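Morning!

This is the sequence you dropped in the shared folder:
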Amino acid sequence: MGTTGSGVATVAAPDAVTRPSSWSRLRLDRNSVFALLSLTAASVWLWHSFGLISAVPPTATNIALGILVLLLFLAAPRETWRMVPISITVLLLILDWSLTWFYTNNKGAWIGVMKVDLVLLIVAVAVMSVVPLERLRQVGLGCFIAIVGFTFMTLAIDPSTLSNPDPVFGGVVSGWRGPFIHKNIMGSFMVFGYFTTCIFGNKWLRIALFPPVAILVVMCESTTVLLLAIVVTGMFYWLGGFRRVEPRAKLVYLATTSAAAFIGLLLWEKYSDLLFRAVGKDPSLTGRTKIWEQVWLAIDKHPWIGWAPGSVWVDQSRTPTREIREALGFVIFHAHSGYLEYLLNFGRIGLAIYALMAIALFRDARRLMDYDLNAGRWGICVLVMLLVMSIGELGTTSSWLAITLMVRLVMQRLLIQHRGPTGSTVKASRAPRTDRQLLTSGHGH
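The structure's back. Tokens below.
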């Protein structure tokens, strides 16, 4: 209150006194905090899992991920916990990894390996169990766009990323690798990321990302990556064709395509050496067959439970790494096969648990095709891609195993949402919705 020059009392306008500032109107409720933590935890995990934030010490990243997951669990709405999937095979796999502590012959190396690999698996399961699917879609697409841009930026400013150091035979091999440790990892990630974008992204995003991704896939100069692109594309359309044919024709469709695949394998067996030499590749897959022979001998010594992580590759003077190195005449750091690497570390029991998890993934993805055709095809195609990649690359460990567990839980969650916890939902009579429609329609929350 004040007075004018004539002595008349005045009162300030209410708005001038009581109108809140823009900052006072900002409120972070529980759902907003949960959404922010979901985006942050999933993003940090994805970038960390493929070594794209290697400048940050792994211990610091693990601590940050642990804090994020703890806060994520505390902020999760009550209804979220009712939809958390429980996968026995995933829990068995993580338990099997943890139990190797009791028989590794190098506990210090075990800690060094597991503080990266096991943490990746645990965080992947934790994040995938509670984060809303729509948030995961946003994180996946956003991070893939950022990683594609980051890859080109790295290639532009660091000439060493235009080639690959060869740790086995020395020197360098051609092919872009960008910020990834190897060109095969970069190319495989681009195939996985773009295929996921085709399922969950919109038309314009697919069109915009195709040229840069195609350039990276071609310029990595990897036969493995090109094979994965062909396998994923072929499997995607094969599953679509199998889903569309009449029930009476499914057997004919399956028999015809199986016969064609068998003929293709016979031709590959007969002419693969000529093909490899024509494109300047080593028919022995860059010495892999020699490595596989020696790894098999080491597996035979501990066939059921394996040697345990940390017992192989880390210390070249220890058994069985010493025997493998002496037989080959050069140093290697993994088995150059996902299946052999898994057998070497976890034995037949461990590989059987992995196989059960993969079968459960395939089963849920196949069932999901009855509700969301594209969602189910995505799960099966990613699984097939990783299984094919594991023939000559490490598709069963570390970040790729975390991706497998991620897809496993996504399939399980989507199936629960369609069928209900008791599986009582009747299949829709109309055409199956795409997974993109599911995630953007609000069911992912």
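Headline: The mean pLDDT is 82.

More detail when I'm at my desk.
O.
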